[in-house]
Amino acid sequence: MAVKQELSIIVGSKYVSDDLPTLQKYSQDYSFVQGSRPSYVIFPKNTEEVQGLVKYANEHLIPLIPRSSHVSFYGAGIPTQGGIIVDLTRMNRILEINAHNKMVTVEPGVTWSQIQAELEKHELMVSNPLLPHPLKSVFTSALEREPILTPKPEYAETLLTGEIVLPNGEIFWLGTALGKGMVGRKFRDGMIPSTRVFTGAQGTLGIITWAKIKVEYLPAMNKLFFIPFDRIENMIEPIYRIQQRMLGRECFVINNFNLAAILAGKRSKEFRMLRDALPPWIVILCLIGLHRLPQERIEYEEESLMELASQLHFQALHTVGGIPGIGKTVLEMLRKPWPEELYWKFAYKGLCHEVFFHTTLNRAPEFTEAITGVAARHGYPVQDIAVYIQPLEHARACYCQYGFHCDPNNAGDVDVVRKLYVEVSELAISMGGLFSTPYGSWADMVYRRAGTYTSLAKVVKSALDPNNIMNPGKLCF
């Protein structure tokens, strides 16, 4: 029996595709990763179908590449050695909303647009990254360890428990979901280390078919502040002090390029005007009041913020750059995915390639200066570098992201950014930046510097996936 017929028995003929345009589409994404064309794209509907596909792939030694998002930015969801794309977007049910325990159970195809719209009806939200793509999977963000805007230690991990189909086709439960005897106990869905083995693995260790994700209550009241700085060095101590006092919920840093891109959206003519009006660096802080004494809480935190502003000589403002209504605009967008068809990161030139890593907040100026120097040597306009800095765990660490824009239809433009991307990545790693999710060319940069860790990772991979069918060619596998 032909492969397509056998796959059709598992998922139905309607959900097996081998037409050339579809295969070509799944062989590439927005990254510099050079993918290969898959043989088939399949769309399972449930765990049983995923199990059937994994068992079939093991029997016939066919690579499987799981993909839960409608969009792919970093090369994790495209094949490097051919095989079968397992597109999980049909598995898009929100299975349970548990407001009491602040968690939601979702399938892998649930998008940011879908989940935030549904949770809003229950006065809940998933703490989100900075304006995620509306078609990006919530699963993908959690598994890729994408930082969220809330720098609290309890939100360092948003994925709690889940169900995974291992590379041998067996089901394994992550976190305390693996202890079936714990059902009904108060903390049965708390995290234990098994969950972390599979985050950042880019689908090389199995296919997660449902997971519990942390949710939070929507605030009853909000008060947004913009804290402008002319120099990146000047914002470090204020952020440390704000986080020491645990003020607000969302707290992050963007430069004038990124804030202008957010405000302008697809209105490209307004972008340069906005960028020129804005200060070089902006800390955005949102004070919140929940349902118990919200006004009193915000007043208390605002008083503390103004005390810090007086001590450290900064301003906490409700607008910035003289732009009217900016506070309301940003606040309305803060806890939702990007609302427009044209993604904000692509509006400037058509494409954006990002280098991102973890470091400590006090080193952010050092990394920024070094990366700016590399960009200048490559002839890339330094004012066009998009910078986003996210304090983590009350500023114990931080996530730094540098975006480089290019016109995908201009070969010279793309070539400059490609070379810049590689050199900046090597530089950041050599300076001690932690690339927690090494995509594409980053994998070699990271793993050749970490021999002991690489050897241990390969032991885990060989134990779980001895036939190496799960997304081969990714990480060090």
Characterise this structure.
The protein is globular and about 75 Å long. It is an alpha+beta fold and 477 residues long. The longest helix has 20 residues, at 411-430. It has helices at 3-11, 20-25, 47-60, 112-120, 138-143, 194-198, 236-244, 256-264, 268-277, 294-312, 326-333, 364-377, 411-430, 442-447, 451-464; strands at 16-17, 40-42, 64-67, 84-87, 94-98, 103-106, 124-125, 159-165, 171-174, 207-214, 216-217, 221-229, 251-255, 281-289, 351-359, 386-392, 397-406. Helix content is 33%, strand content 20%. The protein has 15 helices and 17 strands. It has three domains: 3-87, Uridine Diphospho-n-acetylenolpyruvylglucosamine Reductase, domain 2, CATH 3.30.43.10; 94-217, Uridine Diphospho-n-acetylenolpyruvylglucosamine Reductase, domain 3 (2-Layer Sandwich); 221-430, FAD-linked oxidases, C-terminal domain (Vanillyl-alcohol Oxidase, Chain A, domain 3), CATH 3.40.462. Helix 7 packs antiparallel against helix 10 and helix 8 (256-264) runs antiparallel to helix 9. The protein has a six-stranded antiparallel sheet, sandwiched between helices. A five-stranded antiparallel sheet has the order 5-6-10-8-9. A four-stranded mixed sheet has the order 1-2-4-3. A hairpin with a 4-residue loop joins strand 16 (386-392) and strand 17.
Task: List key phrases describing it.
single chain, 477 residues, alpha+beta, Uridine Diphospho-n-acetylenolpyruvylglucosamine Reductase, domain 2, Uridine Diphospho-n-acetylenolpyruvylglucosamine Reductase, domain 3, Vanillyl-alcohol Oxidase, Chain A, domain 3, 3 domains, six-stranded antiparallel beta sheet, five-stranded antiparallel beta sheet, 15 helices, 17 strands, 20% strand, globular
